[in-house]
Design goal:
By secondary structure, this protein is of the alpha+beta class. 22% of the residues lie in helices and 32% in strands.
Length: 176
């Protein structure tokens, strides 16, 4: 059972600000999603409502570099609320023009801290493609650990070929 969406507040990290999405963010996020370096890992969404689908179970934030209102990406989380399995999962997209500057790491760390400290989760998961070495390094910097390979986990955008995913998780005491 996934949680009902909560009221979103602005979250501030060392390098980024995560703020509630605004309708004006849609075109920028769709353009980021369509860049080859992002589309390789994320299927460019054809839904004209994306990222504002009314039935979405994810809580989504625009990622902005501190001191700027320009949207450089999006981070989202979904919560599993069944008491026996309670945890949250995270995903992120970031404009390739700002890669390798620590902004993605800070955005992930900021949303994970919110999930642990404010929402009371003890465990967070993330599931990059196994071949996405840059994303995996980013998540490991935050404290995520490799749990296992999920074979033929998702279809690769464009080619439709099944590719492996890496299940990673972070316990509250792992956060760096």
């Amino acid at each position: 059972m996934l949680a009902a969406l909560r009221v979103v507040t602005t979250l501030t990290g060392a390098l980024v600000v995560l703020r509630p999405l605004a309708p004006a963010d849609g075109p920028t996020l769709r353009a980021i999603l369509a860049t080859p370096k992002v589309a390789r890992w994320w299927d460019p969404d054809e839904d004209p409502d994306w990222p504002f689908e009314p039935d979405s179970e994810s809580q989504r934030f625009a990622v902005c570099e501190r001191g700027s209102d320009d949207v450089i990406g999006m981070v989202q989380f979904a919560e599993e609320t069944d008491p026996q399995y309670r945890h949250a999962g995270v995903d992120i997209i970031l404009d390739p023009r700002v890669h390798s500057r620590g902004l993605g790491t800070d955005a992930v760390r900021t949303v994970v801290r919110h999930l642990l400290d404010d929402l009371g989760h003890h465990r967070v998961t993330i599931d990059p493609a196994l071949a996405n070495a840059a994303a995996i390094r980013c998540y490991e910097k935050v404290g995520f650990r490799r749990v296992g390979v999920m074979r033929r986990y998702e279809r690769s955008p464009g080619s439709g070929i099944w590719r492996d995913g890496l299940l990673m998780d972070l316990l509250a005491e792992d956060l760096t």
